[in-house]
Specification:
Order of helices and strands: EEHEEEEEEH
Low-confidence stretches: none
Mean pLDDT: 91
Number of helices: 2
Distance between the termini: 31 Å
Length: 135
């Protein structure tokens, strides 16, 4: 692994108390916001090195290579840092199904619920049954 001294750009990120930063995945071609996940230093560094989205799974407490189980890999074209240096934006191409599936529910985007009449309503279709994606 590369030493921290060799990657000073990582020091410019404002990591939270757990050493994480939120990362938004946005589809490069359409501008669709696909998902929000978390990254630690290693995940962000690996993402930059590999050109593939790598996140930190808080529930599993380890690195999560997007698509490692589902095949729905995110190819990263650009990594941006917001003005406060506390949110990362990944501009990606979502692989795996046409259109790409980013959400574990089998939908294109994790942001499929819209507030209507005081209730959340799912407005985007399930493109593939999650039971057939995750075995």
């Amino acid at each position: 692994m590369t030493t921290e001294a060799a990657v000073p750009w990582l020091d410019q990120v404002r990591w939270d108390a757990q050493g994480l930063v939120p990362a938004i995945a946005q589809e490069a071609a359409t501008g669709d916001v696909l998902m929000l996940a978390w990254m630690d230093r290693e995940a962000l560094q690996k993402t930059a090195e590999l050109g593939r989205a790598v996140y930190f799974s808080r529930s599993r407490g380890k690195l999560w290579f997007k698509g490692e189980e589902s095949g729905h890999v995110q190819t990263v074209h650009e990594i941006r840092l917001d003005c406060d240096a506390d949110v990362v934006l990944l501009r990606v191409t979502q692989q795996g199904h046409e259109p790409g599936i980013a959400c574990h529910t089998g939908r294109h985007s994790c942001f499929f619920s819209v507030l209507k009449g005081g209730q959340w309503q799912a407005v985007d279709p399930v493109l593939k049954d999650p039971a057939s994606i995750y075995k």
